[in-house]
Amino acid sequence: MNYLELRKKSERLRLRLIELIHSGKTGHTGGDLSVLNLLTVLYNRILNVDPTQPKMAGRDRFVLSKGHCAEALYCVLCDKGFIAPEELDDYGTCNAHLGGHPDVTIPGVEICSGALGHGLSVGVGMALSGKMSGKSYKTFVVMGDGEQAEGSIYEAAMAANKYHLDHLVAVIDRNGLQISGRTEDVMPLENIRERWTAFGWDVKEMNGDCIEDIVETIEDIDYDNHKPHLIISRTTKGLGVSYMENVAKWHHGVPSEEQYQTAVAEIKQRIAQLESKEEE
Description:
Elements: H1 3-24, H2 29-46, E1 61-64, H3 70-80, H4 85-89, H5 119-132, E2 139-144, H6 152-162, E3 168-174, E4 177-178, E5 181-182, H7 183-186, H8 192-198, E6 202-207, H9 211-219, E7 229-234, H10 257-279
Parallel strand pairs: 1-2, 2-3, 3-7, 6-7
Antiparallel strand pairs: 4-5
Helix pairs in contact: 1-2, 1-3, 1-10, 2-3, 2-9, 5-6
């Protein structure tokens, strides 16, 4: 997909995401919205995955360590054909297959995630397994910035450096907010780039709100440099819904009917603008 197609795809997924959270009456809305651009790019331009063969031997591995943002992942997996639309429609009902955190019974989901701090360790194991068996697949792990307070992340970081896991890519969704407020008030992270560089990682930063920058940053990764890769994705919590952006209370929350209609109108306006660009 080219940049315009990816931007349109992301906005359509954003609309579906808001619909899903509103109808299901549950969701970690702010973080879903901040990570959605990244997931859109990964699944539509980067990852080697096949919905007809979810366990394909040579597939790239994806781990959503910040598993509470499952709704964004579900929308992307459904769009790719891993999840049936009717399963997505059932989200939030008592008999729903899809829960508040991803689990391995869902096609396309590699691990049960949601207990923060575990995803990178599992990703290191996946990447090390591939390296030891001579496989060329890549492993991508997406973490939250509040999650960086978990000590197990840094044990995994040291192991990834020790074993030169250059087919491992970790991304921090750096939206600056967590459930209890600003990350820099709760547990300061900066200078986060220097920290991960000191652990021996190849560190890049990108504007995670910008489709073009996401593509260019990921496609510029050198998978032969014998270093694991860390991308600090600077994002906006609640991206794309004006009253949610950079507001901590939308870490988790369901829009009222009025708020829902406002969000839908904003997103549909952007979709229309993107569609008009395609016609130019």
